[in-house]
Amino acid sequence: MPTKISKVVITAAGPGQNTLPLQRLVDRDGIEKSALELIIEEVVAAGIEQIGIVIREGDQAAYTS
Question: For 23-34, how does the pLDDT look when each residue is reduced to its tens digit (9 = 90+)?
């Protein structure tokens, strides 16, 4: 029986990575969203129950707005 994955960690703290999740993209329905929003929607659709996002110190404000 396959193991059910219930938690995921999204990393956004590497050099040059801290702004990538905040970039704006257009989804398949033509709606503009951040890359992070798109990732989270896919994770939730896959049935993941807990999401952790690792960010750089000092980037908290950008990720809480």
Answer: 899 999 999 999
